[in-house]
User: What shape does this take?
Amino acid sequence: MLPIVLPVDTGDLTALGPLLAVLIAALGVLTVDMTFEREEARGRWSFIVGLVGAGLAAGCASLWQWEAPGRAILGGALYADAFSSFFDVLLATLLGLTLVVSWYCLDRVKVKPAEFTGLAVLSFSGMFLMVRAADMLTLFLAIELMSLPVYVLAGLSAGSKTGREAALKYFVLGSLASAILLYGMALVYGVTASLGYTDIAGYLATASRESGVENPLFLAGLALMLVGLGFKVAAAPFHMWTPDVYEGAPTPVTTLMASGVRAAAAAALLRFLAGAVLLTRGHWMMLVWALAALSMIAGNVGALAQTNVKRLLAYSGIAHAGYMLLGLFALPRGAGGFSMYVAVYALSVLGAFGALQWFDDRGRETVDIEDLAGAGKRHPWMASVMTVFLLSLAGIPPTAGFAAKWFVFAAAVQAGYVGLALLGVMTSLFGAYYYLRVVIAMWMDEPADISGADQSPTTGLVLGLLALAVLFIGCFPGWLWFLADLASSKLV
Amino acid sequence: MTPAPIHYLVVSALLFTTGVVGVLTRRNMLVILMAIELMLNGANLAFVAFSRMHHQLDGQVVSVFVMTVAAAEAAIGLAIVVQLFRQRGTVRVDETTLLRG
Amino acid sequence: MGLETLIALVVLLPLAGAALNGFFGQLHGKRLSGYLACAVMAASFACAASAVAGLSGLSPASRSVTSVLYTWMDASSLRVEMAFTLDPLSGVMILVVTGVGFLIHVYSLGYMAHDDGRVRYFSYLNLFVFFMLVLVLGASMPVMFLGWEGVGLCSYLLIGFWFEDAAKATAGKKAFLTNRVGDMFFALGMFSLFWATYQAGSGTLAFAGLKANKHLIEQATVGAVPLATFAALCLFIGATGKSAQIPLYVWLPDAMAGPTPVSALIHAATMVTAGVYMVARMSWLYQMAPGVMELVAWIGALTALFAAAIGLAATDIKKVLAYSTISQLGYMFLGVGVGGYVAGIFHLVTHAFFKGLLFLGAGSVIHGCHGNQDIRKMGGLKDKMPWTFWTFLVATWAIAGLPPFAGFVSKDEILYEAYNSPHGSLALWLAGVVAAVMTAFYMFRLFTLTFLGAPRMGKKDFDHVHESPAVMTVPLAVLAGLSAVGGALNLPGGIAHALHLPRVLSDWLAPVFPVEATAHASNEWALMGASVLVALAGTLGALHVYYRQKTVPVADNARLTVPVRMARDKFYVDEAYDILIVKPVRGLGRFLAGPIDKRVIDRVLAELPPAVAYWLSARVTSLQNGNVQAYAVVLFGGTVAILAYLTLYLR
Assistant: This one.
C-alpha cells in the first residue's frame, strides 16, 4: 500500500480558504439549480449560497496573518501572502455587493437570478485564483475561469440584441487576447524553461549578469503577455471592447465586469510584473508609461461626448486604468498606491453601476443621462449616493477617489515621472467635467419618468453604506493606504 | 532530416499568424472561431516544442490544460454564435454593429 | 477653551449644521431647520470672534495658531494634514464669512419663508460656509483646494436651487467650464510649487512650509521661465475663474438665477473673494514675480472698467449688481496687484458689507414687487419700502465711493496704492478713476430707477408692493451700519495721522504682509480729493439723467445710436457733460454688453472650448465603429507596436 502524500498541509488550507469557499459556493449554486424546481426558490437559494460563500471567503482572508511572509502552495502554483489576502477581502466584498445590488434589477433585464448567481460566483472563483496565481499556467487557467462565465453572462439577457452582440464582441476579442497571452507564455517558457514567476525572475537576474541583453524572444513573449493582461484591465490600446461591452451587457453584468474583473486583472498584472519581470528595467517603464498616457487620454476624451451613462463609465474606466498604471512607477511604494487605487476604483464603480440599477426607467433599465434627469428631486437620497460615487470617480475631495489619486500621483512624482503625473492631474481635472454633467443633470434638470419605487430599502441601504464608506475613506485614507502598502510592498 | 525545435517553432508561429489573420479578416463568425482555435493550437505547439527542447514535461502539461480550455471556449463561442444567429439571422460579423461610438 | 479648539469649532459647526439639516431635516421640520442653521452660524461667529480676540492677545510676531485635526494623507514625502491656521489674514476672513454669513442666514428665514425646499436650502448654505471656512483657514494648499472645490460644488447646488431649464443650462455649462479651467491651473500651480520644494528634499505644500522654503522656489525654473512666475501665473488664472475676472468671468452674471440671498453670500461676500484671498495669502510668491503682479493689476483694472461699462446698460437689478461685483473684484485685484495687499483685503471686507447689503436689498425689492426684477418697471418705491430704501441708499453711497462711508475709504486706498506704489502707475490709477466714475453712475442709476420718481409698474402691482418683514430688514440695517462706519477700520494715512488714530487693519495685517506699505506721500490729499470728485461726478450725472430728466432705459430691441439720441433730445445742448461722457459711455456699455460680451466672449470662452472638446471626443469615438474586427485590428496593431518598439530598442 502506497502512502498517498498530498503536497498540502493545514497551513496551506487556511491560505486556500477563500478560494475554496468561493469554489464550493459555486458548486453549491449549481447544485441548488438542479435541486429546486420553482424559479424563485432557485433564485433565492442560489443567492444565499453566493452570499455565504462571499462571507466565508472574506472571513478566511481576514484570518490571514498580514505580517507573515507568503507561502507557496501546491508546488509553487499559487502564492498566498498579504497581497492575495487584501484582494481576497476586496473581491469578496465586491461579490457580495454585486449580488445584493443586482438582485432587483435582474428581473428587469430578464436574467434568471439563479443563472446569474451561478455564473457570477464561478467567475469570482476565477478571480480569487488570479490574485494568487504564481505561475503562468495557473494564471492562464484563472483568466479563462474568470472570463468564460462573463462571456456567457453578457449575453444572458433574454431577447436583448445588444446583449448578444456584446457577448460576441467580448468573446472574440477576449479569446484573441487570451491566445496572444498564451503564445507569449509559450515564448517565455521557451526561453526560461520554467513556468513559475520566481523562476522567471531568477532567469532575468542571471541573464542580465551574463549577457547584459535580454533574449529578444523572451521580450517578445513578455510583450505579448502584457497585451493579454492589458486587455483585461482595459488599458489603451487594448480597450476598444470596453465601451461596447459595458453598454450592451445587462447592468448587473457590467457591474461585475467593471469592479470584479478589473480588480482581479489588475492584481494579477501587478503580481506578474512585480514578481516576474522586475519592473525597474528601463524599457519596460517606457512601455507602461505609453500605456498609461494613452489610456488616460483616450478614456477621458472619449467620455466627453457620451450620453449613455454606461458607455461614459466604460470610457472613464479606461482612463482609470491609466491612473492605476501610474502607481506602477516608484516601486515598491507605488505598488501600495496601485492596490489602493484598484480597491477604491472597484468600490466606486460598483456603487455607480449599482445606483444606476436602482433607478428604473418605467420598468426598463436606466442607461442614458436623460433617464437620470431630475433624480435629485424625486429620489434625493439615491441621487446623493450616486453623486458621491461619481465624485469619487472624478477624484474630487473629500471622496476616496481623490485620496487614491493623490497617492498614485505622489508615487509617480517621487519616482521622477513628473510629466506623467502632471498629465494625470490635468486629464482627471478635465475629465471631472463629464462626471459632473451627470451630477448636474440629476440635480438640476426637469425630472424624467423614473420610478425606483420597486426597490426594496435594502439595496438603497447597502448603497448608502457604501457611499458613506467612500466618503470615510476620502477623509481618513490612512488605514487603507497602510493595508495596501503592507500588502503590496513585499511583492518586489 | 530530423525536425529540430526551431522548425516546430516556425510552424507554430505560422499557425498563430494564420489564426490572427483569420480573426482580423474573415467575416464569418464560425471561421473566426476556427481561427481562434488555430491560434491556441499554435501556442500549444510552441509549448510542446519548447518542452521537448528543455527535456521537461511542463510544457506538455500546459498543452493538455490548454486543449481543455480551448474546448470550453469553443463551446461557449458556438453558443453565442448560435444565439446571435437565432436573433439576427446572420453569422457575418460586420452586421453586428449596433453598439458603436 | 483653547485657541485650537475654537478654530476647529469655527469650521466644524457649519458642517454639523449642514449634516443635521441634511439628514434629519425632515424630522425637525422646516421652521426649525432655519433656526438651526442660523444658530449654528451665530455660534460659529462667536467662536471666530473669540478666536480672533485670543489671537490678538498674542504678540504680533507669533500670531499664527494652527489647529491640526488629523493627518489626512501621508504618502511618505508628501504629508497633508487636515489643519487650519488662524493668523491675522484668515482671522479677518472668518469674521467676514461667519458674520455676514450669519446675517444672510437670518435674512433667508424671511426670504425663503414660503419655499418648500428650505430645509435643503439651509443645509446647502451651511455646507457652503463650511467649505469656505476650510478654504480660508486651510493650512496647506491641498486643504485650500478642498475648500476651493467644495465651494464650487455648493454654488452649483445653490444656483440651480430653483430649476429653471434654459437659464440654468447655460449658466451650468459656463460655470463648469470656467471653474474647470481655473481649477486645472490652480492644480498646476500647486504642483509646480511642490515640485520645486521636493527637488531639494523638503517637499511640502503647507503654507508655512512653502514660505519657509521660498528661497528654493526663487531659484527653481520651469524650462526657461522662473518657477515663481509660472506658479504665480497659474494660481492667478485659477483665481480669475473663482473670482470672475477677465477672461473667466462669464459665469457670474448667469449665476444670478439662484435665490438672492445665495447671490449675496456667494457672489458678494465669500466665494468670489477666494481668488483675492489666495493671492494675498501667497503674497510672498507674487513679490518674487513682479511681471505677474503687473498682470494681476492690469487684469483687475481692465475688468473693473469693462464690467462697469456693461453695468451702465443693464436692466435687471441683479445683473447690474453682478457686473458691479465683477468690477469691484477687479478693484481688489488691482489693489493686491500693485502690492497694496492691505488695501485689497480692506476693500474685500467693505465690499462684503455693502455688496451683501445691495443684494439683500435687491432681494427685498424683488420680494416686495412679487418677482419683478426689471428696473425699467420699478420706480417710486421709496415710500412703500422705507427700510429697504434707506439701507440701499447707504450701500449705494458707499459703493459709489462717496465719503465718509466705507466704500470711499477702501476704494480710495486702492487708488492711492495704484498711483504711489512702486508696482503701480498713472495708467492704472486712471483706469481705476474712470471705473469709479462709472461705478458711481450706474449705481445711482440703479438706485434712482428703482426707488425714486414715479412708479412705472401698473397701479394694481404697485398697490401690492410692501416692505419686507423685520427678519429681512434688520440684517439690512446692520449691514448698512457696517457700510457706513466700516471705513474706520483703516482710515487713510493722513487722517489717521492727524487724529492720532490707529490704522486698525493695516496694523493687524502687518505680520502677514512684510512688504512695506507705501509711505505716506504728499499727494495723498490730492488723490483723495480726486476720488471724491469723480464719485460726485458720477453720482450727480446719474441723478441728473435719471432723476431730473426722468430718462428710462429703452427696450432692448430699440437700437438707438448716439447721434440719433443727441438729435432727438433737446436738453443736450446745455449739458456738455452729457454729450461728452454720459451718453457715449452708456452706448459703450450697451455695445460691450451686446456684441462684445455676448458674441465674442461668450462664444469664444463659453462655447468654443466645449465645441473643440466635443469635436475631439467625436473623432476618438468614431474609431468605435461597432465592427469587432476593427477593434481586433487596433488590438493587434498595439501588439505589433509594442513588439516593434522592443526590437528597435534592442538595436
Chain C touches chain A through 64 residues (CB under 8 Å). Confidence is low (pLDDT under 50) at residues 555-575 of chain C.
